[in-house]
Specification:
Order of helices and strands: EHHEHEHHH
Number of strands: 3
Distance between the termini: 51 Å
Radius of gyration: 17 Å
Length: 111
């Protein structure tokens, strides 16, 4: 299992989607993430490869991690979600999007 427990005080951290989120997802590693991570939460709900919990309650954290480990098969990415992951978040897709942005930028400059 992978854990994402970023400090959520700064807004930019709460809205972040760290590289390890994608690395673990593409590797098929179930993820346990801090509840306050807004975009990470949306990603995990979309792909279905993890759980979001409160990391502040240390007593409950031990229980949540144990529970997660017992049912981590539940968080394996199904074929349909794997396709979404690859089509939306792969390096190839990010490269395509970036190249489209560059093409549009250079077209506007040449007008």
């Amino acid at each position: 299992m992978g854990i994402i427990a970023i400090d959520t005080k700064p807004l930019s951290y709460r809205l972040s989607m760290p590289n390890k989120l994608f690395e673990m997802s593409f590797a098929g590693v179930p993820i346990l993430a801090k509840k306050e991570l807004i975009d990470t939460e949306e990603f995990i709900q979309e792909i279905g490869n993890g759980e979001l919990i409160n990391f502040d309650n240390k007593e409950a954290l031990v229980y949540e991690i144990s529970k997660f480990l017992l049912k981590n098969d539940k968080y394996q990415i199904i074929e349909e979600k794997q396709k979404i992951l690859e089509e939306k978040y792969s390096w190839q897709e990010q490269e395509r999007k970036l190249m489209d942005i560059y093409r549009r930028m250079f077209k506007k400059e040449n007008i």
